[in-house]
Amino acid sequence: MKLFVSEGNPHCLKVLAALEETRVQCDVQYVNHEERVVPFLSRPTLPALLLPGGLHLFSSNAICRYMFEVSGPESSELCNQWLEWEATHLQPALLQALHMAVLQGKGSEVPKVLQGPLNYLDQSLSKGITPYLTGEAISVADIVLWAALYPVLSESSLALGECKFVMAWFNSVAGKDSCKSAAQKVLQGKGLQSIKSYMQKQPVPQSSQCRETRPCNSSPAEGDEGERVVSEEEMEAAAFTWRKGLNACTFTTDRQHPILPQEGKRNILVTSALPYVNNVPHLGNIIGCVLSADVFSRYGRLRNWNLLFICGTDEYGTATENKAREEGLTPQQICDKYHAIHSSIYKWFQIDFDFFGRTTTEKQTEIAQNIFWRLHEYGFLVEDIVEQLRCENCKRFLADRFVEGTCPHCSYPEARGDQCDKCGRLINAVELREPQCKVCRQTPVIRSSKHLFLDLPKLETQLEQWLDKSTSAGDWTANAKQITRSWLRDGLKPRCITRDLQWGTPVPHPDFKEKVFYVWFDAPIGYLSITANYTDKWEKWWKNPDQVELYNFMAKDNVPFHSVVFPCSLLGAQDNYTLVNHLVATEYLNYEDTKFSKSRGVGVFGDMAKDTGIPSDVWRFYLLYVRPEGQDSAFSWADMALKNNSELLNNLGNFINRAGMFVTKFFEGCVPAMELQQEDKKLLALVGWELQQYIQLMDKVKIRDALKHILNISRHGNQYIQVNEPWKKIKGGDAERQRAGTVTGVSVNIACLLSVMLLPYMPTVSQTIRDQFNAPNSCINTMLQGTGTFVCVLSAGHRIGTVSPLFQKLEVDQIEALKKRFGGQQTSAQSAASTEPAAMPASAVAEVAAVNGVDPEKAKQLTQAVAEQGEKVRALKAQKAEKAVITAEVAKLLDLKKQLALAEGKSPEPAPQKGKKK
């Protein structure tokens, strides 16, 4: 990499400080302000970063973000919001202030210009409890804002008023060696005079009042720094591309099965984490796995990648046994029933699997047992005696997820038997304090049993070598890297791969014939067996690491099993298996201010969405708009209505509908002739740039960020129509009528481009747009060639079809009714049946009551209270409430649990004190 900078350029201060702070290996070359280092830009643009692949970044914020993400975790949502605020609100004010102070000698007027942004920043910092903008550690947001403000805040002659929180933060960042060094290199201790020559080259800023707008709840467009300047060369290049026209080949949606790897093509294997068959997936499950994978798969096909997308239901394990017991069915009947439910839900959400299978198959047994014997043969399995929790009331050993208690590491009161949701540590169920059976709420006892373990410590060196290669070459999300690193940092321990169950893949070893494979050894092998049920040539995908790229999509809680446990199984089998190249993990999607709960009627589940009357494309759009890429996000009915009515109806739909209606109304349904002027070429260049950003982001699986560029294009289009007013010009003379025709023709072609970009997100809407405009199928594979090709698809004389609105408004009363319906407002009969654990049979309750003198009715009420208080604690933690508030609510939760134990006839141990370290 090579970084081009110039002295006296405040934007170069940003990138040099970021470079020093991150210590990224990069050559730095100083050039003068006039030097053109980006070959396709006519005007000098600095700083600029030349990437190893030959691409250039020439936005200072994009360069800074790139450096931070290369050297560490992905930027958080809050960080992105601050970068957007800096670009869209702070920079315009700073440009005006610096112009006044440096070139006009009006330093006394600078405080007035900067008052709004500085006050907003000061208020935001005053509410924070961390030393930096986004947390305890310095982030790219701190570097960018510090560098932007450095010329004015380090100038004592500018009386900027008292912003004590801003100054405390500014001085803290300025004290960093990286910032001191960068400031000296760029400004050389000369203050404002050092940037005079740079300012003389900048356009005169328009005087405008800066808006005191808080960082918005979405990531900014990549590298957005106010309105983008488009050069003459960019305009001419865009016009040249526009005239190229369509490819001769036609895109086809018909896929020839079985899809197999091909020589000379990019062969992509996409898997989505296998959903548990016994649950109905909620919106968080859908966006975290299948929907994200579907969007990427659809995009990959548009890019002409040779892509196979497989998934299926995970059907073995205790959860299935328990569900069968609840419903009075056999485990196989439960699997058949819920597999059909899952298939129906995904079909309604338009999830376009190449194959959706299941794990209860002969292929699963065959492949899992083969891997087992190979691990056994190569010495990667060990035997050990395991202490397990057994519920004497239920008369069975308890699977990890059917035990709940207090975490031995962080004292979280609702840790599961396999993992704590709060601290993320893996735990053995017997380590839990105050364990309870989640089925009957009795205290289980410890029993011993002999089991087989995967010897992870023995495989650790192989794993680390593979991980170093995969994480550096592939697109692993920041949370996937972080979670994996934390596992390795703590040191790997042998992992049990067998269970005392009946419903599972049988262990073929004669000494363990009564046992089955533990679901997290067995379930990921489902990817292989599902592929084997799709094609008998499955090994061409799964034993072909040199030709195949594997993408795994999942929520963050599944990461360790896909980045450590499953790869170790395949590495130990020594059979040339394809291992994951790109591990894409989301954070969690919450529901409003709480969590999804089927039993309490809270949240929208997959089988309910279609009953709302809202089209599946709108559901897809909103879930992808709030996709939890960098941190947890929340589904909100009010926000969904806002995004539907503003982004879909008023922005995207309004532009596409107006463009089509102009053709119908003013030009008798035929696209008019177009004579491009500079304004049109500028629009083509802007749209082309947004398309390039979209492709770059989608290639990197930045699905939510890429969506913003689609909406940016329709915003450009709406502004273009509004400024040119074709509805007025059509009534004028020949020149004005010609102008109306050009604006209309360019607009309908942009609408066609939008239909292509929307296809991965909203497939039905995408097809509807193309149908309304009679767009040829070849537009699909033309537009997404290379880095993006915006060509004229609908030439003069092309007849469009019937144009109609694409979206409908979501009304307030409609949304309020839906919010109430899915907010846990159930009938009393439903509420009584909706406690989180399944109730004991009446006879069992009577027996326990007779022996222990318990109060079953009170226990039922307290169980509900414990569940509600638990949700309250989780919500407060998700909202990052003050520690004292959370502690008080946790204390209430522990007290309720003690009361519940007493009501159930148990003698609870004193609640452990939280947060004390030994």
Report on this model:
The chain has 918 residues and is α/β, with parallel strands linked by helices. It has 33 helices and 20 strands. The strands form six sheets. Strands 7-6-5-17-18 form a five-stranded parallel beta sheet, with helices on both faces. The protein has a four-stranded mixed beta sheet with strand order 2-1-3-4. Strands 9-8-13-14 form a four-stranded antiparallel beta sheet. Helix 3 packs parallel to helix 5 (140-153), helix 13 packs across helix 19 (559-573) and helix 15 (478-490) packs across helix 19 (559-573). The protein is globular and about 85 Å long. The model is unreliable at 208-226, 825-854 and 909-918 (pLDDT under 50).
Shape: globular
Q: What is the CA-atom radius of gyration, in angstroms? A: 30 Å
How many beta-strand runs? 20
Terminal CA distance reads 48 Å
Low-confidence stretches: 208-226, 825-854, 909-918
Average predicted confidence as pLDDT: 86
- Quick one: biggest sheet? 5 strands, parallel
**Strand share of the residues?**
5-15%
Q: How would you classify the quaternary structure?
A: single chain
Strand pairing plus helix content: what structural class?
alpha/beta
